Amino acid sequence: MSTAIALRPYYFGNEDYAPVSESSRAIKNRWQEERNYLRSSATDWLPTIEGTLNSIRDECRDADWDSEGAFPVKERTIDLAAKIAVALFESLPTGIPAPDVIPEADGEICITWTVDAGRMFSLSVGEHGNMNYAGQFGRKGGVHAWQPIEAANSSVLEESIVDIVRYIQRLYKLPSGRSAAR
Question: Is 112 helix (H, G, I), strand (E, B) or coil?
Answer without folding.
Answer: strand
